[in-house]
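Input structure tokens:
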């Protein structure tokens, strides 16, 4: 997943989100792991988005649980692109 932001005079705005260089399918559900800071920013950008809170867990235990269920991370890529 890549987040494309635009730098506008010391302020960033979200331009697009892509997965494997394709626009996201708005009808599809995606699972991502978020930090508390990222979660609060996402809720400000899109207050209607549904965020499921995983119980008392760490990032590493969430990765282990996901991968033990057969889920695999996407291939690595630059995950933030800043346009001017």
């Amino acid at each position: 997943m890549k987040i494309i932001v635009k730098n506008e005079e010391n302020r960033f705005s979200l331009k697009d989100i892509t997965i494997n260089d394709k626009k996201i399918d708005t009808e599809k559900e995606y699972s991502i792991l978020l930090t508390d800071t990222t979660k609060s920013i996402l809720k400000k950008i899109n207050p209607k988005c549904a965020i499921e809170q995983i119980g008392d867990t760490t990032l590493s235990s969430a990765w282990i649980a996901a991968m033990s269920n057969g889920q695999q991370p996407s291939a690595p890529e630059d995950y933030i692109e800043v346009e001017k």
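The mean pLDDT is 80. Residues 2-83 form one domain.
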